[in-house]
Amino acid sequence: MRWIATIAIALVSGFAGAALWSFSGLGESQTRNYLLAHPEVLPEAMQVLQRREMMAAIEPLRQEIETPFPGAVMGNPEGSITLVEFSDYACGYCRQSVADVAALIENNPDLRVVIREYPILTAQSAEAARMALAAAQQGVFEQFHLAMFDQGQVTPETIEAAANEAGVNLELARAAIESGQFEGQLQNNVYLAQSIGFSGTPSWVIGERTFNGAVGRRAIEQAIAEARDS
């Protein structure tokens, strides 16, 4: 109970995440009375706690999370702000977010967008993810990424069509895929997503914020500003 009261008072005082006073002498009845009088602080307190727990999971893995598969990056590859998206080509919400990411890149020249292939919806989305990594290897990742989402459906035919549109050398790409060289990357992306607690796509990491789903441009823009100021 005391830790809830500490977070609650801190939030009310405008110091979320750090108590302003010591509550070692706060009795159980006082704690109960405060929380009954101010129940609105509990959801806020839980949000602070959940955010702390999420950051505790991310920080030991941050460098790995923010380091892209070579070439699987959009925006400014040398940008000082990194947005990580866990994405699946069969995900309608990922497709919905493409325009938001493009606008964020246009409006933030210091933004680096790392795409982590997280194909969890269909077997075909895993095939598309492998082709995306082959495209990254050939220096045409963004072209394939956008073309694949433009296709809508994920099928062998649309994967090939997107690859052709992006300028992928299919012979080299298929040889790379068949060699199995991308499997470790895909497995590691699953590990990272599960370590953070992501179970769906799109999922996002930026600075000290994480998001699940197509949260929209405004929420991510705010997180970019926070990361830039931190």
Describe, in plain words, how this protein is organized in 3D.
The protein folds into two domains: 2-51, no CATH class; 70-229, Glutaredoxin. Mean pLDDT is 85; it is low at 1-24. The chain starts with a helix and ends with a helix. 58% of the residues lie in helices and 11% in strands. It is an alpha+beta fold. It has helices at 2-12, 28-37, 41-58, 62-66, 92-107, 123-137, 141-151, 156-166, 170-178, 183-196, 217-229, and strands at residues 73-75, 81-87, 111-117, 203-206, 209-212.
What is the helix/strand order?
A: HHHHEEHEHHHHHEEH
Strand order of the largest sheet: 1-3-2-4-5
Number of beta-strand segments? 5
CATH hierarchy: architecture of the largest domain = 3-Layer(aba) Sandwich
Shape: elongated
Main beta-sheet strand count, sense and barrel state: 5 strands, mixed
Residue stretches low in confidence (pLDDT < 50, at least 5 long) are: 1-24
